[in-house]
Amino acid sequence: MNIVSFLKQRNFINKISDEKKVLQTLKEGKGVYIGFDPSFKSLHLGNYIMINILNIFDKFNIKTFALIGGATGQVGDPSGKKNERKLLELDLIENNIACIKKQLHKLTNSEIINNYDFYKNLTFIDFLRDVGKKFTLNYLLEKEIIKTRLESGISFAEVSYNLIQGNDFLKLYENNNVGIQIGGSDQWGNITTGLELIRKKYGENASACGITINLLLKNDGSKFGKSDKGAIYLDSRITPVFEMYQFFINQEDQELKKLFMFFTILEIEKIDEILQKHEKNKTLRYGQRKLAKIVITKIHGHEAYEQCLKIANALFIGEFDKLTLQELDLCFKQFISFPLTKEIKLCDFLVGNKIIESKRVFRELITSNSLFVNQTKIENFEFILTKENSYFNKYTIVKKGKKNYYIIMWKQ
How far, in Å, CA of 178 to CA of 65, rounded? Predict the structure, then answer.
């Protein structure tokens, strides 16, 4: 199977400039590149799909490049934006680039290039003569990314973004033997400007092609990769590993095949084998656990994945005494915590925080053996919550029924 067939099989391809030319370009030994925007200090799961695509090309022994937009990040990509982006300070962009470069080095075998290197010694006049003169204003105004912004307003800088990205492709074509640019479905206008620039300089037979990738959507049509708290980032200091683990574990069964396609490089036969095993008992969430293991091990390592299992097991069984303070911190980030500074009757705590409706309900919970504090079944109607009865003098866990946890955080 060739690489295009492989991508089609996984429903990656949104648009392709010329399929035969893509295969010919790869036969000539040319490489592929994907750009990454340094608008934040970490990539997220949406970016990880592009990282996975780089790894798929690497699997086919095709040279890959990851281009970080040190120059374009100073302008802002208008694609998909209703209003102009707020420009970032240069030192913040440089810090973002350094962070993203580390992530890409860890997750890909791609050669990493900063497109600022293309422009740091290029004058504005040089750019206008070499690039700007190649395109009419009419050509740019026909670009969807620009056309949709004309009514609300678009700056000259944002219009220029299209030309800069086009010139990036030309530079990589000339200097790094890159023949294919890959981008999200909103990048078609930027990619085709690069193709046009290369065509104008090297003719119709120039070995340059473009591919855009389908946006990964949930079955309800919403964008994948965000939780209730926002984007799932690859940096564990921003999105804790356990939060990413829970995100994958909570995915719907009908999403699984699509997610395995986009987030792994497993062969279709292997994916089908996993899903067949999953179907035998969906309550075990075998498919979700397998997916979480593959992705988290790749991004954060096996040890981090094992820690997620340990935390998940503690939540399921209630054995919180086996967790370290750091693991408890990670575990309880997903719960609303209730701060306490002094001891209080358990009944008053539950009623006062509207966890239960009344003292009558409290008595019913105790009578039915449905109330626990730190794994201990509560039988005393006068039970008092104290800091002494906590994990690491920080957490007390109240459990109501089988699955309802309420976390008390003791303050100094």
Answer: 8
Residues 6+ apart with CB under 8 A from 358: 351
- Cβ atoms of 173 and 198 within 8 Å: the answer is yes
Exposed, middle or buried, 30 (CB in 10 Å: 0-12/13-18/19+)? buried
Pairing of strands 404-410, 395-400: antiparallel
Report the residue count for the chain.
Answer: 412
CA–CA dist 96, 114 (Å, integer) = 12
Cβ-contact 257, 274 below 8 angstroms: no
The residue assigned the tokens 């999403």 is 255
Query: Residues 340-350: pLDDT tens digits?
Result: 989 999 999 99
d(CA 346, CA 384): 5
d(CA 104, CA 122): 27
Nearest residue to 183 (alpha-carbon basis) of 175, 174, 193, 171:
193
* Alpha-helical segments (H) within 119-155: 124-130, 137-141, 144-147
Contact criterion met (CB below 8 Å) for 125 and 92:
no
Residue type, 26: L
Structure tokens at 11: 């429903």
Tally of CB atoms within 10 A around 360: 9
Q: Which domains does the chain have, with CATH numbers?
A: 3-213 (3.40.50.620), 228-331 (1.10.240.10), 337-410 (3.10.290.10)
Among the listed residues 161, 188, 165, 168, the one whose alpha carbon sits nearest the alpha carbon of residue 76:
161
Mutual angle of helices 256-263 and 268-280, in 10-degree steps: 150
pLDDT value of residue 227: 65
- Other Cβ atoms closer than 10 A to 105: 12
Among residues 8, 10, 32, 54, which one has the least CA distance to residue 210?
32
* pLDDT tens, position by position, 227-245: 666 789 999 989 989 889 9
Residues of the chain with pLDDT under 50: none
The rounded distance, in Å, linking the Cα atoms of 129 and 138 is 18
Whether 168 and 68 have beta carbons less than 8 Å apart is answered as no
Cα atoms in the Cβ-side hemisphere of radius 13 Å centred on 293:
9
Token digits of residue 120: 């740091």
